[in-house]
Amino acid sequence: MNCDSIARWYRWIEYAGFGGELQRRRVAFLGKVADPRRIIVAGEGDGRFLVRLVDQNRDASIDYVDVSERMLGLARERAGTDRVTYHQADALTLQLPEAEYDLICTHFFLDCLDEQDAPRFVDRISRASTIHARWLISEFREPHTWARFIVRTLYFFFHLTTGLGTTRLVDHRPLLERAGFRLQHEEASRFGLLASELWIR
Question: Three-state SS for 124?
Answer without folding.
Answer: helix
